[in-house]
Structures are given as C-alpha cells and as structure tokens.
Amino acid sequence: MSIPDGDVTVLLKAMNRGDKSAADQLLPLVYSELHRLAKGYMSRERRGHTLQPTALINQAYLRIAQQQNVEWQNHAHFIGFAANVMRRVLVDHAREHNAAMRGGGRVRVELDEGIAFTRETAPQLLLLEEALTRLEQLNPRQAKVVEMRYFGGLSVEEVAGVLGIAPRSVKRDWSLARLWLFEEIQKGAATAQQ
C-alpha cells in the first residue's frame, strides 16, 4: 500500500518541531521503502554477510534517530538521507571485514543508478567511499547528488527538489561527479596495487 508523500512530509515537519511521537509514526510509513533499499543492498552483498536487511534498517534508523540538527524537507529528503546512512553502515562493515585485506588488483566500479555488492566488491566500496569523501570536500553538492542518485535511488527530479536546484543542474552534477569518481577510484586502485 502506498502512503501519500504528504503524510510523511507532515510527520517530518512535526519531527522538525520536536514532536517525539512523529518519529514513532514515521517508521511504519517508510518501512517498506527502507526495506526495499536494504534488501537491494543486501541481495548483492557477499555471501555470509552478518547483516540482514532488517538489521541494516535497524542500525540505520538508530543512527537517524540520533540526528538532532536535521531539518527534514520532505519524503524524498528522508529516503535520500536514509540511503546515505545505510551506505555508511555497510562501509563500516566493509572496513571491519577487510581491515587486513587492503589492496589487490585493478578495480572497476560502474557508477550507474544502483550499486552492486558481491563478495569481491567490499574493497571497491571502500575505494568509492574514500573518493566520495574527497568529492565532498571539493564539491559538496555533487557529492550529495551522487549519494541521492546512486545510493538512494532518487530520480533527477526528486534530487532537484531536495536540493532546491534545477533538474538540469542535477544532471550536470551527476555526469561530472561520475567522471571524477571513476578517475579517483582508478587512481586508488592503482595505488593499492603497488
């Protein structure tokens, strides 16, 4: 069952005003979307991963609940933010899993509309995370576009709405960021290979 976007936005605005009960009402409304995101991430994760989609949602929601200075704008903003938090949970897990296994061969990472995780992609995820962190320092808006498009699965129009920019600007940022990230990941893979 689809919940009208306005209902979620109303709850988010109530959370902005400090209404604690709004957070309790929000989770059931967005849970199916969060589960879809988490299930997509985890279905492509390495075999034997210790996280399940529900655990990923729980860890992400706990981190979201600890946020105190977020001004929720709308439903798309929340989902984009949640996708970012899920990404960080998975990156933390990948770092723990690969602490002793840095480096390896040349790595190719496709930056398309979704992310594919396999047993072999945890090092790629770490390279992407490092490159995205550098991009955040150089161009925060491009980094946000990547987070929302790549990890959150938001459309160009949704990203434009969240960031308050034109869809054409989102498309330009998306294209430039993908090229920049690809080059940075290749550099990181080459360095790790040495």
- Provide the succession of SSEs: HHHHHHHH
End-to-end span in angstroms? 52 Å
Output mean pLDDT. 79
Silhouette: globular
Q: What is this structure, in a nutshell?
A:
The protein contains 8 helices and no strands. With 194 residues, it is mostly helical.
Report on the structure:
It contains eight helices and no strands. The longest helix is centred in the last third of the chain and has 27 residues, at 167-193. 71% of the residues lie in helices and 0% in strands. The chain is mainly α.
Throw out a few tags for this protein.
194 residues; mainly alpha; 8 helices
Tell me the layout of helices and strands.
Elements: H1 5-16, H2 20-43, H3 53-66, H4 75-97, H5 122-138, H6 140-151, H7 156-163, H8 167-193
Helix pairs in contact: 1-2, 2-3, 2-4, 3-4, 4-5, 4-6, 5-6, 5-8, 6-8, 7-8
